[in-house]
Design brief:
The complex is a heterodimer of chains A (about 550) and B (about 190). Helix content of chain A is about 55%, strand content about 15%. Chain A has about 550 residues and is α+β, with helices and mostly antiparallel strands. In chain A, the strands form two sheets. Chain A has a five-stranded antiparallel sheet with strand order 2-1-5-4-3. In chain A, strands 7-6-10-9-8 form a five-stranded antiparallel sheet. The longest helix of chain A is centred in the N-terminal third of the chain and has 66 residues. The chains are: A alpha+beta (about 550), B mainly beta (about 190). The interface between A and B is large, with 43 and 37 residues.
């Protein structure tokens, strides 16, 4: 399986990083938000409790004062005392008028105070008459609280009938002695809970001994609230009601009854969390976009130089050596180091190649020198043929590799003559057919020599086929026309020209003009046409470049320029 | 916890109009009488309940039917006397300092009188259709003379405690002693 691309890896890494960071931030944020919300909810409830305590204490005081003032009612006291006296007398017939008077006064006082129920009770706290909107819940005869409990406080929570009431007692006195009391009742019902809730700006509940008397929250939450037990604490507590987290703050206590203010932490937290999440979502989106851009840019700047380097390396392995060093990109220190290492590798390979080439050239020159040493008459012949062949190759617009092959191949074209005996090679007269046959082996012999040296392999065609003729009458194979490699055709023409113009053991050389005419005459038979024209075209350049070592060449140059 | 408001019955401190009078001992609020006797022609008497320092003094009076009770106003401000009792429903109106009004009680029973102006004032008048009743002395002793012999029921009554009855046998010419104990708490402040 191939390794993932640099861009892919950068993208994945940056995505993962962003996702992790966002996740961590969200987690921390949620916790922080929750804590802060819980704290602020608890603080709100605590301040509500303080407000409530002050307000309620004041209200109680005011109410008690009002009732006390209203209790200074001569009609009420007179009617009550008289009725009480006559009730216990021998005559059991009670006065309906007296009772009606008491009832009327009770109604008046209840109206003034605005109580849920206000009752006139006798010394045993038995209701004589009651007024107020809930008067029917306190019928005559019902006892408010514990009759025998003379020391019970005047401010207590009492269960009367089916309801629970907050009862405040104010005694009615005549001549210094109590004859009865006014019992002021506030029903601890849903309406009262609603008032508490409005005061605390949240929800409220009234609980007593494991039951919820009234609350402003719905059924399931109220059920879970029933387990609240005061246990003497005054601060807000966190409870789970119907699966949500609520802060529960006791506002005040009255005997077994506890008044609670509630606020839902989850709801408050949800709102804030949603807002925080939205902000986070925007930040996250922005972060992802930036991460993508950053990853793409980073990957691009890293992978471009790497691609460059790998292309150069590929070129190196296919043999085409890059001419110039790879430029240092400056994107990262590691990449630059790699590039510099590569460049020095390039340099050392280039110098190794140059060395090899020098060695190779030296070997070739040694071979050529060996050949020249054998036959003085061919001294310089290989050099001249090589020169001519290179000029012709340039004239024919061949590429540098082909010209290089020509140069060295032409230098070695007669190497096979090493195998030719001296008496044949240096014979001053014409050769016999048998001797000619021996000479005719030199192309193959030369090829054989070269075949044992691998780096001279490109030059074998020149050496082996430089005596082939377009008309097929050459040797050793008798190839025709274009079957003969171009390099061999070129060297054949160059070889013939130099042979014609140079002195031999058996004749003197011809002048160049004559040689040219001869070449032209034999085009398409002995010589390749384009090669001949190339040589003729290159001659002026050759003359200009070479030194007149040979007097005949000097003669020729003079003839030509005339 | 809600604060406790002052638990006095009145919203303002009881004010004194003069030197604070000594509270009448509860003993004086007891009436001792025979409940099963009646006598025609018991002589009417005169009694007086003064209104002083915003109190009726004495708090309890016992008279025979046909008696009249005067209510002199000895305070420097107006007072009133009224009653809602079945035996005697009356209202003497408001009258100023120094004047006095009175009321005749012709029916036996318990009459409670109050003052319209001062709601904490009250007094009790027990009207009997015989003469065998008394209010104890300050040392707790009492004497009832001329009781017809026989077995009778003697009652000691206090306004707040109620009655305590006892059977007593009266022999002609002899004195019979009896004592009662009534669990009465002295009134608070």
């Amino acid at each position: 399986m191939r390794a993932p691309r640099l861009l892919t890896r950068a993208l994945v890494t940056s995505f993962l990083t962003v996702a992790l960071v966002l996740g961590a931030v969200f987690g921390v944020l949620s916790l922080r938000v929750r804590d802060q919300v819980r704290q602020s909810v608890a603080d709100n409830l605590a301040s509500a409790q303080q407000v409530f305590t002050k307000v309620e204490a004041r209200r109680q005081q005011d109410m008690r004062a009002s009732v006390a003032v209203l209790a200074e009612n001569p009609t009420l006291k007179a009617a009550l005392d008289t009725w009480l006296t006559e009730r216990g007398g021998a005559n059991e017939e009670t006065s309906e008028e007296l009772l009606a008077t008491v009832q009327r006064e009770a109604d008046k006082i209840a109206g003034r105070v605005g109580a849920d129920v206000l009752a006139v009770a006798d010394g045993s706290r038995r209701v004589v008459a009651a007024g107020g909107k809930l008067a029917s819940s306190w019928p005559r005869g019902v006892v408010i609280g514990n009759a025998a409990d003379a020391s019970s406080p005047s401010d207590r929570a009492i269960s009367v009938g089916s309801g629970m009431y907050h009862v405040v007692s104010v005694p009615l006195r005549l001549a210094g002695a109590p004859i009865g009391s006014l019992e002021l009742g506030t029903a601890l019902d849903a309406r009262y809970a609603r008032e508490l809730a409005d005061l605390s700006r949240g929800e409220a509940a009234i609980v007593s001994k494991g039951t919820v008397l009234a609350s402003t929250v719905s059924g399931p939450e109220a059920r879970d609230l029933a387990s609240y037990s005061a246990a003497g604490e005054t601060g807000a507590r966190t409870m789970t009601l119907a699966g949500e987290a609520w802060a529960v703050q006791p506002l005040s206590r009255l005997g077994d009854v506890t008044f609670l203010a509630l606020a839902s932490i989850d709801q408050a937290a949800a709102g804030q969390t949603r807002a925080a999440l939205e902000g986070l979502a925007w930040v996250g989106a922005g972060a992802i976009v930036l991460a993508v851009i950053g990853s793409v840019w980073l990957a691009r700047t890293l992978s471009e130089p790497i691609d460059h380097l790998s292309q150069s390396l590929t070129a190196m392995t296919t043999g085409a050596l890059p001419r110039e060093a790879v430029r240092v990109s400056g994107t990262s220190r590691e990449l630059d180091q790699l590039t510099e290492t590569f460049n020095s590798l390039l340099a050392s390979v280039a110098s190794a190649e140059a060395e090899a080439e020098a060695t190779y050239l030296g070997a070739v020159r040694a071979l050529a020198a060996a050949l020249d040493a054998r036959d003085p008459y061919t001294a310089g012949h290989s050099e001249r043929v090589s020169m001519f062949a290179v000029a012709m190759g340039e004239e024919l617009k061949l590429d540098s590799d082909a010209i290089e092959t020509l140069r060295l191949g032409a230098l070695l074209h007669d190497i096979g003559k090493i195998g030719v005996p001296d008496e044949v090679l240096r014979k001053s007269g014409a050769l016999s057919p048998a001797e000619f046959e021996v000479i005719k082996t030199h192309p193959s012999a030369g090829a054989r020599i070269l075949r044992s040296i691998p780096f001279l392999a490109p030059h074998i065609p020149i050496v082996e086929l430089h005596h082939e003729r377009p008309d097929g009458l050459g040797y050793p194979y008798g190839l025709r026309g274009d079957d003969i490699p171009l390099a061999a055709r070129i060297v054949h023409v160059a070889d013939a020209f130099d042979a014609m113009t140079s002195a031999r053991a058996y004749r003197s050389g011809r002048i160049p003009v004559e040689a040219i005419a001869e070449l032209r005459r034999c085009v398409a038979t002995d010589f390749d046409g384009p090669s001949v024209e190339a040589l003729i075209a290159a001659l002026p350049r050759l003359v200009a470049a070479t030194e007149p070592v040979d007097p005949k060449a000097f003669q020729w140059a003079r003839a030509r320029s005339a | 916890m809600p604060n406790r408001a002052p638990s006095s019955a009145s919203a303002y401190e009881r004010r004194s109009v003069g030197p604070r009078p000594k509270a009448q001992p509860e003993l004086k609020n007891v009436v001792i009488f025979f409940s099963d006797l009646t006598a025609a022609g018991a002589a009417p008497m005169h009694a007086s309940i003064a209104q002083k320092d915003e109190q009726f003094a004495p708090h309890v009076v016992a008279v025979t039917t046909g008696s009249s009770v005067a209510f002199p106003n000895e305070d420097p401000f107006f007072h009133n006397v009224f009653s809602l009792s079945r035996g005697a429903t009356f209202n003497l109106g408001r009258y100023p300092s120094g004047s006095s009004r009175s009321q005749t009680f012709n029916q036996p029973g318990i009459v409670k009188v109050f003052c319209e102006i001062h709601s904490h004032m009250s007094a009790v008048i027990r009207v009997f259709n015989h003469g065998w009743f008394t209010v104890p002395n300050e040392d707790g002793t009492f004497v009832i003379d001329g009781v017809p012999p026989g077995d009778h029921t003697l009652v000691a009554w206090h306004e707040r405690v109620g009655e305590r009855r006892d059977r007593v046998t009266i022999r002609a010419g002899a004195a019979t002693s009896i004592s009662f104990t009534l669990p009465v708490l002295e009134p608070g402040p």
